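Can anyone check this?
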Amino acid sequence: MLVLSRKKNESIVINNDIVITIVEIRGDKVRLGIVAPKDVPVHREEVYDAIHGQKTAAAPNPGPVGPS
């Protein structure tokens, strides 16, 4: 898992066509704005789980990303 720090109104870009922007930070809640192509489904995890009829298991920590 890649972990990034961002402030309000800062963004990250994924694959040149998905932009995730921090819209608001209030207490322990963060609001995200997501711009993605129409053919890329974007769901909250609980909605994704309901659609696929399963609970997503917590992924084990795979360790550092990138070459060693």
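Reply from J.R.: I decoded it. The mean pLDDT is 88.
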